[in-house]
Structure formats: C-alpha cells, structure tokens
Amino acid sequence: MAPRIAEHAADAVAQITDGSTVLIGGFGNAGQPMELIDALLECGATGLTVVNNNAGQADAGLALLIKERRVKKVICSFPRQSDSWHFDEAYRAGELELELVPQGNLAERIRAAGAGIGGFFTPTGYGTMLAEGKETREIDGVGYVFETPIKADFALIKALRADTFGNLVYRKTARNFGPVMATASSNAIVQVDEIVPVGQIDPETVVTPGIYVDTVVAIESGPTPALAPKKK
Q1: Three-class DSSP category at 77
Q2: Interior CA angle at 16 toward 11 and 20, to 5°?
Q3: Which of 15, 31, 168, 175 is the most exposed place for a label (fewest CB within 10 A)?
Q4: What superkingdom does the record give (predicted)?
C-alpha cells in the first residue's frame, strides 16, 4: 500500500501522541529531519522517549524538545558535547532520563527490531557499567553481553527523494540511521526534498523500500542550521 502523502510537516507528525517512543535519524546535523522535529515541537506531544545518535545540539532540533521538557528519556550514544547545554541542564536537574548505548550497539539494537531478532550478544560494553543487570556469557573465551532490540512507535527520517510508493534514496552520509529506523518503527514518517512518480527512481538505488514507509512529506531543503555560540 502506498504511503500517505502529507501536505506539510505539521500534518505528518500530528499522529504522534504523548508517551510515544520516537526514533530520530541523523548523525549530528547530517540527515537530521529538522523540519519534522520543529513540527513535533509545535504539535504538543510530551513525555516522549527519543532515540537518537546524540542528545541535541545548540538551540535547534532535538535540543529544543529537551529544552521545553517534552522528552522524558533519551537513548543515545553521545549525549554530551560543547553545545549540549539543554541536555546538561535537564539531566542535572533530574528531569531527563538517559540510557547510554555504544554507537554500534545502538545501530544493531535498532536493526534487530526491524529484522525481528529477539536480541544479540556483543563484546562491546562487557565488563563495564553498561553491562550491569544484563545477561552475560563467555563464547570461545570472549565475554559478551546480551542486548535487546529497540522498537519504536514512530520514526522521523530525512531522505533525499521518494516516489509515490514511498521508496527512498538518501544523500551520501545523510542516510546514516534512516534505513534501520524505518524498519524498526510502527510508523515511519519521512521528509524528502521531492516526491516523484513511480519509475523515476532507479530500483538499484533504492535504499529503503516503500513497504517500510507510512508517511512522506516534501519539504524544500534549506541551509543547514547554524550552531549557536557556546552558552555562557
């Protein structure tokens, strides 16, 4: 079935409700669906669990959701950097829960959810605080820790182009977490630069098949948001 074509970003995210778990694509600014995040901020949903590579930057995107206390928990691999002041403030105030996950484990936990895998053993994190409370096992003399899938109610993804069946192509490294997040969510919402008729995308270049895409919205790509100066 073809995905729903939304008229604008607010329409695309209107179905996201309080308490939802939301996967948000992007590696820093690359591939981050800024317009969808801004629309989510406007729609009013709160108590969100957000899964992202980091915990927001400066005063844009995910950082603003955290600033407005709309996020109750962040699952990420890289929460702190020089401009993560909104995360720092909320976390230190005890108003934001953090689950720290090594980056490779994060990607694989999301992929496992999309692939229907019940979990996997990995050596990453074994013998550290990140393995506390988790099942461990020694395999061929190497210690492993068991990691569970990360499933989500929604995914917000940025791609370069979609056809009317929802098949997606990405722009270079901007694809990062997008493909696995699309498969691991019940509702994948995708912003693209353009939507083209079926047949105008070479099937050999399709990265995310339309079967994983639920909503598509075309948003003209603007300049990458400038990062604010370090907060004093």
Answers
A1: coil
A2: 165
A3: 15
A4: Bacteria
